[in-house]
Amino acid sequence: MTTAYIALGSNLDKPRAQLDWALRALASLKNSQLYQYSSYYRSAALLSKDNPTPQPDYLNAVAVLKTQLVPLDLLDALQALENQRGRRRDVKAWSARPLDLDILLYGDLQLDSPRLKIPHPQMYQRDFVLYPLCECEPKLILPNGQRLADLCATPAKQLSQLS
C-alpha cells in the first residue's frame, strides 16, 4: 500500500459536518485505509484577482490514507466524493465550496500530468495544508528536501487549530 496525504477543506454548507462526512467516506474508500487525520483548522479563504469576492472562512484538515489505488483512480474517487457533496466545477477557481479534496503527496511519486500534479503545486505556500500535515507527520521530509517540521517551526498566520 502507498501512503497518500489528502487535504480536506470546506467553507459552505456546515463545513465541520462536511469534513466529518469526508473522513467517514475516506475510511470506507475501496482498497484504502484511513490511517490518521489531523485536527481541524480555520483559515481565511484565499482570494484572487479573478475571484475577489469575500467568502466565509474555511475549515481544513489533512488525512493520511494507505491505498492500493493508483493516483488517477484515487483522484477520481476523491472527485466523486466532492461531487456527492455538491462541488461544482463550472465556477471560477478559488470559489467557495462545500468540499475540496486534494492529493498532496502520494508516496514519493512526482507526477506532472494535465489532470494531476504531485506533490500538490501550492502546498508549500499554504499554512492550512502544512500545519495539519505536520500534525500527522512531523518528521516528514518533503519532495523538495525540506523538513516539514522546519516549515512549521513558527506559528501560522491567520490559522487557528480547532479541537
Query: What is the name of the CATH architecture?
Result: 2-Layer Sandwich
When the domains are counted, the total is 1
The CATH topology corresponds to Alpha-Beta Plaits
Which outline best applies? globular
Class derived from helix and strand content: alpha+beta
Q: If you average the pLDDT, what whole number results?
A: 91
- Strand proportion: 25-35%
CATH class: Alpha Beta
From the N-terminal CA to the C-terminal CA, the straight-line distance is 30 Å
Task: From the structure above, extract its key features.
single chain; 163 residues; alpha+beta; Alpha-Beta Plaits; 6-stranded antiparallel beta sheet; two-stranded antiparallel ribbon; 4 helices
Explain what the structure shows.
With 163 residues, the protein is of the alpha+beta class. The chain has one domain: Alpha-Beta Plaits (2-Layer Sandwich), CATH 3.30.70. It has 4 helices and 8 strands, in the order βαβββαβββααβ. The chain has helices at 15-27, 71-84, 127-136, 148-151, and strands at 2-10, 32-37, 41-43, 58-67, 100-106, 111-112, 117-118, 159-161. The strands form 2 sheets. Strands 1, 2, 3, 4, 5 and 8 form a 6-stranded antiparallel beta sheet that branches. A two-stranded antiparallel sheet has the order 6-7. The longest helix is centred in the middle third of the chain and has 14 residues, at 71-84. It is globular. The chain starts with a strand and ends with a strand. The model has no long low-confidence stretch (mean pLDDT 91).
